[in-house]
Specification:
By secondary structure, the protein is α+β, with helices and mostly antiparallel strands. It has helices at residues 7-19, 36-43, 70-77, 110-115, 136-151, 181-196, 229-235, 270-277; strands spanning 3-6, 24-28, 32-33, 52-58, 82-87, 93-97, 100-104, 108-109, 119-124, 153-164, 169-179, 209-211, 218-220, 245-247, 254-259. It is built from 8 helices and 15 strands.
């Protein structure tokens, strides 16, 4: 059954959609700047590795930051199982979990929630992934937006890894498989700084490359600064040089906590790092 929504009821049902998700969340919106109320209810899912999230945003192909703010990307990166995708032609807005979906005029943008005249249609559904059931409106909408997802460009992918046993599966860790957005925002930050500070000098392309010990993204190799900008900003709040990190700065492999800010390279890789990177 479809229900027409406007105003506060639209906002409330969208909030319910996030709150009562147990398996999947799909967020499709050209512009994303999370309202505090939506960020708060989504944050409750950060410790839920069984929930997979797909975010698709669009427009502004030459500058993603005009369609998704860096703070929202950093927020989404915290989730254990998530894909962030881009579709330059996107104008439609669609939000769903495993049991309900909302097709609406409203962007996932705080100004839209607070100021715009918006409307939407709430539909029941069964099974975000796999067989669909319910009315034809939901089936047609879900099929269409699955195609949008499949055809969009994958910019960030983080997957939850589980240890399987005879009785159950236990969440082990999350692994970033694709990350094109961290470098984008890092480079944009440096580009913006270059406009404000004449002393800024571009990174030399001949520099050896390494990996951020917290996020695993590729950065300039520098054992004295083994983190990307966003990870470093998070780390410096406490500045614990021996805090266990996830990756080896030299190889990018998972370190299982054996690396830290003061020792960013796995011991087994130290000799090779000295030979190839002239330490």
């Amino acid at each position: 059954m479809a229900i027409f929504l406007t105003g506060n009821e639209l906002n409330a049902q969208l909030e319910n959609l996030f709150e009562f998700a147990n398996e999947h969340i799909i967020l499709i919106s050209p512009y994303i700047k999370l309202h505090d109320r939506f960020a708060s209810v989504l944050k409750a899912k950060i410790d839920s590795p069984n929930i997979s999230i797909v975010v698709v945003f669009g427009k502004n192909e030459d500058d993603f930051s005009k369609s998704m703010k860096e703070e929202d990307f950093i927020f989404f990166k915290q989730f254990p199982d998530i894909e962030i995708r881009f579709e330059k032609r996107l104008h439609a807005k669609y939000y769903a979990n495993e049991s309900a979906a909302i097709l609406t005029s409203m962007n996932l943008y705080n100004f839209s929630q607070d100021n715009n005249i918006e409307a939407g249609v709430l539909t029941d559904r069964k099974g975000v992934i796999g067989r669909l059931s319910g009315d034809s409106l939901e089936e047609d909408a879900a099929a269409y937006f699955f195609r949008v997802i499949e055809q969009s460009e994958l910019l960030f992918k983080k997957v939850a890894v589980f240890e399987e046993s005879f009785f159950n599966s236990k969440y082990k860790e999350s692994v970033i498989e694709i990350d094109k957005l961290s470098n984008f925002f890092n480079n944009k930050l440096k580009s913006d700084s270059s406009v404000k500070k004449s002393s800024y000098k571009p990174i030399e392309p001949t520099k050896k490359m390494g990996f951020c010990i917290r996020t695993g993204v590729q950065i300039i190799f520098n054992p004295k600064q083994p983190m990307c900008d966003s990870a470093f900003q998070s780390w410096k709040k406490y500045s614990k040089i021996d805090y266990p990190e996830k990756y080896c700065h030299f190889s990018g492999e998972i370190s299982n906590g054996e690396t830290c800010f003061s020792k960013p390279i796995l011991r087994k890789n130290w000799t090779k790092a000295k030979e190839t990177h002239l330490l």
